[in-house]
Amino acid sequence: MGASEAALQIFSGAFAPQFHTNLRSKFSSVCCVKSSKDRHYGCMQQNGVRILKSYIQRQRIRLESLRCKCSQAENIRGAFLEDGSGRLVNGLANDSKFQLGQHLKYEKGNLFSDDGLTAATSNVFGANSIEDEAWSLLRASMVYYCGNPVGTIAANDPSDSNTLNYDQVFIRDFIPSGIAFLLKGDYEIVRNFILHTLQLQSWEKTMDCHSPGQGLMPASFKVRTVPLDGDEDATEEVLDPDFGEAAIGRVAPVDSGLWWIILLRAYGKCSGDTSVQERIDVQTGIKMILKLCLADGFDMFPTLLVTDGSCMIDRRMGIHGHPLEIQALFYSALLCAREMLAPEEASADLIRALNNRLVAMSFHIREYYWIDMKKLNEIYRYKTEEYSFDAVNKFNIYPDQIPPWLVEWMPNRGGYLIGNLQPAHMDFRFFSLGNLWAIISSLATTDQSHAILDFIEAKWSDLVAGMPLKICYPALEGEEWRIITGSDPKNTPWSYHNGGSWPTLLWQLTVASIKMKRPDIAENAIKVAERRIATDKWPEYYDTKGARFVGKQARLFQTWSIAGYLVAKLLIANPNAANILVNVEDAELVNAFSFALTANPRRKRLRKGPKQTFII
Ligand code: GLC
């Protein structure tokens, strides 16, 4: 296939997955070209050969959201300079000098640009509340590609010269930003984000000559302005994704595609615009993610098998195997995808596999991940080495696995889903995001969901403490820390991922408590956050058991801390809006679940069942 034909296929949105394989090797970037001589835009091949402009013209209508809109961008800039109305960064970011908002500095309550211009201050925007300040900061974090907003950078911390990859748009970090924009009626940035990250899905991604599955979405991407080969006056903007091949620890972001599906559904539900999810390329994108997640492997469980660090906790913390966070997001993404997939003959097998997986997963998680006082006592009294189909202790769990801290910590009321590696290899730590998303997605039963919230209330001083919400509890200490984290100096006990407190989790707590009609829990947590979050300059995380210190290496002006707070406030003000994120429990799943609970395992082995069966 010639390069120009390939471009046609890519942009037509009608490509079949196998084309990606061919195309991926030919293209490493699709970019927007900007020349000071003659303003023109086009697509570039890896070697810098410009694909004929006519192809772009022919595809203009289809490309609508992916092409560069130079004149529009000019207008945006003009608009800011004239009215300074809070669309400020739109304008600045269109200028290459202000790419990614990197040149906006926050000092003494004011946002400054490089040339000393006060870009945004509390007063300029009439900020008289924490919320106003948060909105100014969120807008200042917007990232533009060819003049159009496509995401928000992870952090805009002027005090830190070593940005690492915090100047990138992280998929998971953008979710609260995207939801905040949606709830504000600002749909464009979310639409652009969805479509541009979709383009990145088909990128060539290799590490040491090995490529992961095609459906993988990047952890993050960056808009780079680079000189155009052969034209010294011209620059081009390039979307540069990181699939983990550059990320610290080289971890594959399994959660990215799952979040992408969740955001896509939220976009449709909030904006009413279902045309995005109906697009052929978007449908293909959903299917590619599902195929990757539903692919057969060696695994005996319906849960998704992943490596350590494949989610929000993106470095070694001993959560390889079947960690709860990924399972909850996976379950949610399956339900969201089922709602959006066009009913067509070709998808019938995929939908069947998806339905089987949902049933098996809900049974598996509700049964084997759940822990409360009663269950703990059951495990404590387990007999071991049982050999029979009716074994109570199916996974031969030794009661000595129960960690001493849990015996003291478990309240009489409440319970939670443990961070399991797999049923027989229990990780009893409490992981907030997985538990909250299990409520939101209805992966947990209604009773379990209430019990999780009861648990958070009972353990308020540990989990909410001085700043909501602890990422996990308790911290790994001593020898455990040394072996499991590999002596990671960033993940020392009660810091960062290892028992640190992350303000961004406030929005997920809010959605979960609104879903269970207990918004007071979120309201109380928001009050705790409001005591310090703005004066502390919106840190990424807090350290110590009681969340007393701003984290040792925490970034300030961390965008998802800002956006998480905004989403929490917006949802408390309009609880119905939480429905764009919530999955209500599916009646068919409940039936299938109760059947699975009562089924005799022996009979089940003999019965002819669906092709795909899992151990549940
Ligand atoms: C840290 C977090 C990760 C986040 C990234 C950017 O690595 O663990 O979840 O996406 O920072 O904020």
From TrEMBL:
GO molecular function: beta-fructofuranosidase activity; endo-alpha-N-acetylgalactosaminidase activity
Enzyme class at the top of the EC tree: hydrolase
InterPro entries for the chain: 6-hairpin_glycosidase_sf (IPR008928), 6hp_glycosidase-like_sf (IPR012341), Glyco_hydro_100 (IPR024746)
UniProt keywords, alphabetically: Carbohydrate metabolism, Glycosidase, Hydrolase
The protein's Enzyme Commission number: 3.2.1.26
Source species, domain of life: Eukaryota
Pfam families in alphabetical order: Glyco_hydro_100 (PF12899)
Swiss-Prot/TrEMBL catalytic activity: Hydrolysis of terminal non-reducing beta-D-fructofuranoside residues in beta-D-fructofuranosides
Similarity section: Belongs to the glycosyl hydrolase 100 family.
Role according to the record: Invertase that cleaves sucrose into glucose and fructose.
Full protein name: Alkaline/neutral invertase
Source species: Abeliophyllum distichum
